[in-house]
């Protein structure tokens, strides 16, 4: 990537409160719709940006990522929004960045596969080191507290201690869980598109997670927007 290169950057967020502030910041915007997915085309810092508000869950995230791959053809896909912290020492308002993501609710182990593994696909989808380093650098400059590790995806809101314990037992170095990231990563892996997963913690998985999520989801969306736009601004 040479100096002055303008990229096409796709951004996927699940919920209105995770996307609305970012949508308002983009320049030269136009809007369209695919199924129930709200699409905003715009720009930031000289780069073409396409923001998709996908809806919650893996199927919605897959539809959004596939639309991006086919119609927008991005150089980089960023999946952003909120997550629940799992790692000891994470707090509401912290960021988590994936070095790899996995499906914590996939289990075909009775026929010889690992937890999280689908036949013909890896257990973990790895983020390219150069993008993770850039994200880490920008977050450090912005003085955003952040943690790097595995982000685990499943179709359930994780709030019981027993759920947390099981995920940590099955997958290494899990920092957070949520409901879309591995689906986005899997589509990007299959299309050979670079991706980043960054989430702000709206809750820390445990018995109080539901209350915390409802209180902090808007804050998580705003903080994620600031970091995403800061990152795009520093991509040459």
Automatic annotation (TrEMBL):
This is adenosylhomocysteine nucleosidase. Residues 8-232 form the Nucleoside phosphorylase domain. Pathway: Amino-acid biosynthesis; L-methionine biosynthesis via salvage pathway; S-methyl-5-thio-alpha-D-ribose 1-phosphate from S-methyl-5'-thioadenosine (hydrolase route): step 1/2. Keywords: Amino-acid biosynthesis, Hydrolase, Methionine biosynthesis. GO terms for biological process: L-methionine salvage from methylthioadenosine; L-methionine salvage from S-adenosylmethionine; nucleoside catabolic process. Its EC number is 3.2.2.9. The keyword Hydrolase applies. It comes from the Bacteria. Pfam families: PNP_UDP_1 (PF01048). InterPro entries: MTA_SAH_Nsdase (IPR010049), Nucleoside_phosphorylase_d (IPR000845), Nucleoside_phosphorylase_sf (IPR035994). GO terms for molecular function: adenosylhomocysteine nucleosidase activity; methylthioadenosine nucleosidase activity. PANTHER family: 5'-METHYLTHIOADENOSINE/S-ADENOSYLHOMOCYSTEINE NUCLEOSIDASE, 5'-METHYLTHIOADENOSINE_S-ADENOSYLHOMOCYSTEINE NUCLEOSIDASE. SUPFAM superfamilies: Purine and uridine phosphorylases (SSF53167). GO terms for cellular component: cytosol. It comes from Marinicella litoralis.
